């Protein structure tokens, strides 16, 4: 746990944290307005670790509640005896949490104890996850994401293989958001069990729905759950329609600049802009003029797959910017309709240059950057490629930087501005990129790794295979 500075305000905060376990006395969080930036962030890290420790204890307790409420005990089980239909509902009632959080506590608690709640079979492939939660190093939510993403051993994937994948996920967990950790876990399972990607894709597709419910006040509620392919199409259109209001890339085309300014001053909320765009797209259908709704840049739906997997018809691909694995059959269907753009990588993971020396990266170069980087390279950022701008590692004018793929990275608008305006730098050594913070952020300016987010060229980078991009309908 990081040590906090010792001035009076921080001492008061530390004493308050130390007394958290004494529930016999009242508690109110002390003021932190006097903290400097370093103290404020150190306090946040301290509270986060306290929360992880408390949640670990809550998970163990929840698992024991479930054990004492197991089905074979019938009405004598703890939950039924106290009027709760399931142990999770009892945990939610006692702890004041949601049913979803209670289910997560029970599941992770079962990982932390020697045997599973549901059976007496051990789960050795998750032993390291349980140990990390017990030590306060991994949150309950992160542990549950790893558990759900990896699944259980079967005839195709051994417990040993899952244990090895768990080790890799724990090593990366500290640098990933919860959403990206969950996606990485699902991708690890897809890599280990390529033969069943189509089955998992079909299972997700079977869960899709759209519900339209008229409301008494005349409004209509629409709720939906989208499979990866449907989501890729809808999200691409939504992003294209709303990006100027959500921090998307800056525009250089005069018409797009004017459109972005109109949206910035539009009185509609972001949610209203989104629903109006989707309704207009549906209304106009195939006859839509894309410039009237989503701007000059059409919503792009691209499929990324390695050339070797496509040739062997074994493995899986991804919709660009979406981590869920899709089957080779789906990839082939998209390619059949739209063709492919081949992108080759050398043995060091460099995308081979398209050779354009101009101020702005070309559309083809941006496709390569999108496949290679998978989105914004700034650590912790989840912006997809369509929201990013291409940044020259060496300033194009000042340092005579080339507009070459190896010397460019994708950054979202916010982080691109941060790099240019706040003294950050991007460096490259071979195929590895890093961010150098300014001295007012880190006096020693220690490099911060900036690995790619894309599932093809990221943590699967040891599989140096060419990639092919299927440009779906509306790609640009």
Automatic annotation (TrEMBL):
Residues 364-417 form the HNH nuclease domain. InterPro entries: DUF222, HNH_nuc. Residues 444-476 are annotated as: Disordered. Pfam families: DUF222. This is DUF222 domain-containing protein. It comes from Lysinimonas soli.
């Amino acid at each position: 746990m990081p040590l906090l500075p010792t001035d009076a305000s921080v001492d008061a905060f530390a004493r308050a944290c130390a007394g958290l376990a004494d529930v016999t006395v009242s508690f109110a969080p002390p003021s932190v307005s006097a903290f400097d930036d370093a103290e404020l962030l150190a306090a946040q890290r301290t509270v986060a670790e306290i929360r992880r420790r408390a949640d670990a204890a809550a998970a163990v307790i929840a698992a024991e509640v479930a054990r004492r409420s197991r089905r074979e005990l019938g009405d004598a089980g703890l939950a039924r005896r106290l009027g709760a239909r399931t142990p999770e509902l009892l945990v939610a009632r006692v702890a004041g949490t949601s049913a979803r959080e209670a289910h997560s506590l029970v599941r992770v608690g079962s990982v932390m104890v020697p045997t599973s709640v549901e059976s007496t079979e051990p789960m050795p492939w998750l032993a390291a996850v349980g140990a990390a939660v017990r030590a306060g190093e991994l949150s309950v939510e992160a542990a549950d994401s790893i558990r759900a993403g990896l699944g259980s051993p079967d005839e195709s994937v051994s417990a040993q293989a899952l244990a090895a994948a768990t080790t890799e996920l724990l090593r990366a967990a500290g640098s990933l958001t919860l959403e990206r950790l969950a996606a990485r876990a699902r991708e690890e399972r897809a890599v280990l069990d390529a033969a069943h990607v189509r089955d998992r894709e079909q299972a997700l597709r079977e869960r899709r729905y759209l519900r339209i419910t008229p409301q008494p006040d005349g409004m209509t509620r629409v709720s939906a759950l989208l499979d990866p392919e449907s989501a890729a199409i809808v999200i691409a259109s939504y992003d294209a329609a709303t990006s100027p209001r959500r921090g998307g890339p800056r525009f250089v085309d005069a018409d797009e600049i004017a459109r972005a300014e109109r949206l910035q001053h539009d009185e509609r909320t972001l949610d209203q802009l989104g629903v109006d765009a989707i309704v207009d797209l549906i209304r106009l259908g195939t006859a839509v003029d894309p410039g009237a709704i989503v701007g000059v840049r059409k919503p792009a739906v691209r499929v990324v797959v390695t050339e070797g997997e496509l040739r062997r018809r074994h493995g899986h691909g991804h919709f660009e910017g979406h981590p869920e694995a899709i089957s080779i059959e789906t990839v082939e269907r998209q390619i059949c309709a739209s063709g492919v753009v081949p992108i080759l990588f050398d043995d060091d993971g460099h995308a081979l240059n398209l050779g354009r020396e101009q101020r702005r990266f070309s559309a083809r170069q941006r496709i390569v950057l999108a496949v290679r980087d998978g989105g914004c390279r700034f650590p912790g950022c989840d912006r997809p490629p369509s929201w990013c701008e291409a940044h020259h590692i060496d300033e194009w004018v000042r340092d005579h930087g080339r507009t070459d793929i190896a010397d460019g990275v994708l950054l979202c608008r916010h982080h691109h501005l941060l790099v240019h305006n706040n003294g950050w730098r991007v460096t490259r050594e071979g195929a590895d990129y890093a961010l150098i913070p300014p001295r007012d952020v880190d006096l020693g300016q220690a490099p911060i790794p900036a690995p790619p987010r894309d599932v093809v060229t990221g943590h699967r980078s040891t599989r140096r295979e060419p990639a092919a991009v299927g440009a779906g309908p509306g790609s640009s």
